């Protein structure tokens, strides 16, 4: 690698200059191929000082002491200096020559004897991260080689090389020779880097180290225990210590786990494919699976077992995971593992047939869901009455009868007492439930219980005991929370019911489940918001989220964050709501995840507040079929109200159809809150709507809507944005400004004269309410005028 073509990063030049002026030692610590040697030599030559260059395995200390002329000593491959006496001799040379400078390059970390120089500020260490090239470094290197490169090619080189200097230089050399950047060139560059690694590093290791590296290469990260299990070598601690002292290819993070540099791991995988037969590779993955299984990290364990071809272990872990993490969310998280199983494997297990029936239902493949249900039913019928397998199958059929989203809620009034009788007779034992599916609601959790709301008082009396018995821990507090939520949705005062539920909080935490606790707390938060006490609601949410996060209940956090986003929209904290939208909103419309419907609706609300009405309609479109098929009445009301507001703002007359449909559903169940919660956003639509003003329910609804509009007058109101008045040309120029294009470059791209560009830029800044180009990007992003990646 000729130093003629080495681009030295400004940050490295600064460190080098500091060392020359007031330091004593500059230490380059990076793996092979990072350009340590050529970078150091180029910097040294640029000083014009006399220097000596030596290798770490043969430093002529006596000659250096006797020679008075050199000013800079460059020791390359310092990791080869293994003798303690040589290291001490180097330290003495540094201490006794304060006017001389020492540049050291190593594939390992600084030896312990040199650390004293770092502690006293006399030695600076440049790690691999500093030596990596960024996009601008790579662009400058292309310029130095005088090789033309397009923006897309530059992005491709940056992505494929991840800034590894040797990989970048090899790629540029091939392009200088006339090759076109693409998969073939990338593959060739990788092979060339790998051959270099093989000669310069790998073949210099003894056979035990080579074997150790290859056996750990399949795993992105590992700890000492995993290294022992996978390699089966009792000396793994010694080998890891040696690798850390003598190389920097292995990194150690704050969670006490090791991982290879990406380029070196790719090389090891390449080497493993050449050296190891398929069976040996499968054995390694199976050992990795065993380690993760012992840690109860079932996801990583199943990844390993799949790669090891052990489907029976995947089946076993899926069943264990479902028992540890009840609820429909588990099936989404494990979807790819269930689908990886052969059908024969599934048909042999009642637990897996139950899982497939539920998973297919969640994927909206209801026909396939019922096929798996029938397969489970046939399995139960073929078993003897006393057969444990048949008992398990009947138990899981009962679970599906209660849980499948396509089953009518009205049928549960017969199903639950029947299941209760079977439980009392010890004919079945139900698998764990998750009634809420991690949502802050029982009425609108795993199922929509709107139909029960029509007779909530009667059903509470009749079903409370069997429901709590059937659901076990998930039944603690459920009935009281459900009836309170039913009354709340109808617009009734639930203060006394909430007092009772809050008093039971300790019991729910001790004897119940986090699902019910979230449902109860979610209802408390909604009632606080509905009464205008937003500060209390925010505190309640923050306390709950902190506690759940500390207890490792991460599955609830996405819906908690969505709920907090809605609260931000109510109080007008649009910047915080935008942060949620950019960082946490689902925004994957091509594959509906029904478990995220609360988040989809929240996403649509943020888009409504941003004036992105067409995006609102697109977001909601994926939910419509699911809400209709599974009779999700409460979700349907929210969907229709949000859609009506978006259409009304777009002056699309279909808004009234959507609003009427939402009101019809709400009136059927006497619901108030699902509509009144939209307050100021829905009020103008209701005022235009011609409904019977004498209708008692409608009068109550309008009063509740006006109350919410008074509490939160800015809720979902389209923000006033000066940028909305930008013309199409100005929007194009704004994007170029935000891409850091100069006025001259903008003129060339847009094919307009420079004075015209300046006029447009001036108008754009005025409309954005800023005075400088540097402020335009921030202002434009806040007004949703440019995408986040610019």
Automatic annotation (TrEMBL):
GO terms for molecular function: DNA binding. The keyword Magnesium does not apply. It holds the Pfam family TPR_MalT. Keywords: DNA-binding, Transcription, Transcription regulation. PROSITE patterns: HTH_LUXR_1, HTH_LUXR_2. InterPro entries: P-loop_NTPase, Sig_transdc_resp-reg_C-effctor, TPR-like_helical_dom_sf, TPR_MalT, Tscrpt_reg_LuxR_C, WH-like_DNA-bd_sf, WHD_MalT. The keyword Transcription regulation applies. Residues 719-784 form the HTH luxR-type domain. CDD domains: LuxR_C_like (cd06170). One of its GO terms (biological process) is regulation of DNA-templated transcription. SUPFAM superfamilies: C-terminal effector domain of the bipartite response regulators (SSF46894), P-loop containing nucleoside triphosphate hydrolases (SSF52540). Gene3D superfamilies: Tetratricopeptide repeat domain, Winged helix-like DNA-binding domain superfamily/Winged helix DNA-binding domain. This is LuxR C-terminal-related transcriptional regulator. It comes from Hominiventricola filiformis.
């Amino acid at each position: 690698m000729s130093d003629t073509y080495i681009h030295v990063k400004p940050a490295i030049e600064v460190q080098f200059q500091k060392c020359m002026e007031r330091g004593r030692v500059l230490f380059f610590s990076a793996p092979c191929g990072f350009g340590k040697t050529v970078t150091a030599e180029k910097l040294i030559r640029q000083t014009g000082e006399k220097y000596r260059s030596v290798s770490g395995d043969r430093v002529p200390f006596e000659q250096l002491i006797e020679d008075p002329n050199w000013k800079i000593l460059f020791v390359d491959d310092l990791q080869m200096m293994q003798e303690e006496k040589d290291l001490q001799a180097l330290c003495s040379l540094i201490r006794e020559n304060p006017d001389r400078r020492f540049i050291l390059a190593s594939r390992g970390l600084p030896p312990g004897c040199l650390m004293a120089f770092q502690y006293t500020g006399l030695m600076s260490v440049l790690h691999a991260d500093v030596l990596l090239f960024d996009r601008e470094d790579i662009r400058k290197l292309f310029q130095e080689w005088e090789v033309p490169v397009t923006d897309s090619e530059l992005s491709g080189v940056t992505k494929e090389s991840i800034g590894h200097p040797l990989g970048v230089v090899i790629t540029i050399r091939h392009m200088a020779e006339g090759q076109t950047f693409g998969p073939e060139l990338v593959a060739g560059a990788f092979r060339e880097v790998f051959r270099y690694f093989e000669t310069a590093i790998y073949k210099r290791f003894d056979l035990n180290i080579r074997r150790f590296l290859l056996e750990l290469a399949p795993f992105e990260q590992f700890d000492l225990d995993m290294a022992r299990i996978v390699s089966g070598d009792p000396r793994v601690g010694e080998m890891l210590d040696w690798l850390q002292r003598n190389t920097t290819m292995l990194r150690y993070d704050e969670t006490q786990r090791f991982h290879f540099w990406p380029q070196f791991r790719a090389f090891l995988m390449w080497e493993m494919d050449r050296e190891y037969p398929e069976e040996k590779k499968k054995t390694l993955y199976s050992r990795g699976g065993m380690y993760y299984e012992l840690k109860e990290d079932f996801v990583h364990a199943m990844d390993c077992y799949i790669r090891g071809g052990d489907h029976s272990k995947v089946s076993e872990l899926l069943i264990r995971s479902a028992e540890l993490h009840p609820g429909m969310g588990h099936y989404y998280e494990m979807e790819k593992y269930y689908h990886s199983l052969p059908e024969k494997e599934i048909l042999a297990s009642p637990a897996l047939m139950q899982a497939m029936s539920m998973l297919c239902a969640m994927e909206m493949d209801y026909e396939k869901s019922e096929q798996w249900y029938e397969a489970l039913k046939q399995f139960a019928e073929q078993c003897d009455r006393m057969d444990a397998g048949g008992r398990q199958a009947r138990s899981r059929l009962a679970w599906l009868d209660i849980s499948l989203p396509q089953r009518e809620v009205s049928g549960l009034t017969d199903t639950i007492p029947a299941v209760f009788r079977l439980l009392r007779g010890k004919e079945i034992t139900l698998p764990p439930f998750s009634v809420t599916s991690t949502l802050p609601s029982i009425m609108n959790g795993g199922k929509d219980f709107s139909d029960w709301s029509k007779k909530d008082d009667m059903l509470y009396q009749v079903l409370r005991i069997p429901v709590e018995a059937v659901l076990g821990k998930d039944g603690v507090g459920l009935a009281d929370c459900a009836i309170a939520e039913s009354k709340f949705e109808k617009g009734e005062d639930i203060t006394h019911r909430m007092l009772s539920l809050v008093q039971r909080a300790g019991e729910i935490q001790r004897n119940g489940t986090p699902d019910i606790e979230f449902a109860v707390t979610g209802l408390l938060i909604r009632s606080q918001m509905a009464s205008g006490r937003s500060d209390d609601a925010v505190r309640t949410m923050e306390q709950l989220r902190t506690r759940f996060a500390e207890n490792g209940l991460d599955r609830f956090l996405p819906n908690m964050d969505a709920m907090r986003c809605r609260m931000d929209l109510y109080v007008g904290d649009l910047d915080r709501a935008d942060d949620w939208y950019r960082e946490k909103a689902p925004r994957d419309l091509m594959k509906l995840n029904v478990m995220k419907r609360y988040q989809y609706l929240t996403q649509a609300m943020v888009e409504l507040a941003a004036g992105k009405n067409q995006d609102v309609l697109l977001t909601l479109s994926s939910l419509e079929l699911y809400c209709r098929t599974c009779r999700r009445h409460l979700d349907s009301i929210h969907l229709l109200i949000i859609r009506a507001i978006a259409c009304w703002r777009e002056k699309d007359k279909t808004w009234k159809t959507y609003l009427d449909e939402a009101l019809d559903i709400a009136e059927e169940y006497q619901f108030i809150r699902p509509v009144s919660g939209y307050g100021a956003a829905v009020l103008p639509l209701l005022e235009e709507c011609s409904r019977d003003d004498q209708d008692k329910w409608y009068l109550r609804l309008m009063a509740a809507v006006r109350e919410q509009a008074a509490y939160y007058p800015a809720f979902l109101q389209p923000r006033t944005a000066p940028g909305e008045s930008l013309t199409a040309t100005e929007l194009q120029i704004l994007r170029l400004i935000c891409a850091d294009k100069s006025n001259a470059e903008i003129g060339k791209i847009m094919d307009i004269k420079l004075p015209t560009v300046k006029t447009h830029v001036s108008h754009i800044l005025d409309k954005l309410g800023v005075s400088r180009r540097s402020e335009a990007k921030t202002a434009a992003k806040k007004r949703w005028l440019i995408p986040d990646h610019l």
